[in-house]
Amino acid sequence: MTQMHQQEQTPYLIRFGLWLLIILHTIRGVLTLSVLFPLLDRQQRDHHIQRWCQRLLKIFGLHLTVQGAERLPSTSYLLVSNHISWIDIHVINSFKPVRFVAKSEVASWPIFGWMAKQLGTVFIRRDSARHARQVVDQMAEVLKTESVCIFPEGTSSSGETVLPFKPNLFEPAAISHTPVWSLAISYHSRKTGERSLATAFIGDMGLVESMAMILKSPDLGVTLHFLPPLQAQPGQDLDRKLLCQHSYQAISAAISVP
After folding, report:
1. pLDDT value at residue 4
2. If both were cysteines, with which of 13, 84, 153, 198 could 159 make a disulfide (CB 3.0 to 4.6 Å apart)?
C-alpha cells in the first residue's frame, strides 16, 4: 500500500525554518564548489559531497537504511538504479559519492543544475542518438577510474513499479567488462512502514513543489538495496541487453517486496 501522509503534516513554522536551512545549506554548497573544490583531490571532494548530502537528508528528515553494500568492490563499477526523485542522487551520494548520468534538462535547473555540472555529472540528450553515442564514450572513459550511476528508466516514476529500462547506457560496462551493480531505491513512512509517494517527482511537478511535498511529510525513510552483478557463464558474452535485463529483473523483484 502507498500513502501520501495526508493525515499528518510537519507544522508550518517548522517547515518555514527548514526552508531557511535549505537556502543556507545550498549557499554553503555553492561556496564550497566555487572556492574549495578547485584546490581538492578526488577523495577530498567526495568527502565534502558526502557530508553535504548527509546534511541535506537530515534537513529533509530522511532517514537512510542501506542493505547489501558490504560486497561493493573498491574498484569502479556501473551502478544501475530505479529513479523516483531528484533527491535520489543526494541519497546515493550521502552513502557513497559516484558520478551520475542525468537528462540534459537537469543542467538548466537554477543552482542545482550548476551544482550538478560542477560535480562532474554527464548530461544526455535523449532525443539525439549521436549525442547518446558521445555519452557512451564519455562514460567508458570515466569508468576506468570512477564509478558511474545511471537511471535507465529515462524518467522518474512513483516508485511503485519499475519502468522499462533502456539498454544503451549499459554499453560501456559491456565493452570494458566493468561489473554492473543494481540498486533498488524505495521511500517509506518510518511510522507505518508503508511505501510513501511524498518524494515522487513525476508529471509536471516542479523542483520547489517537490521539495515542499517532502518537507510536509514527517518521518520519511529511504532504503538503498544493493544487488550483486550478473555472473557470466563459461563462454557467455554479457552484452548490454543481458545486463539490462538482469538489472531490471533484480530491481523489480526488490521493489515488489513490502
Report:
1. 45
2. 84
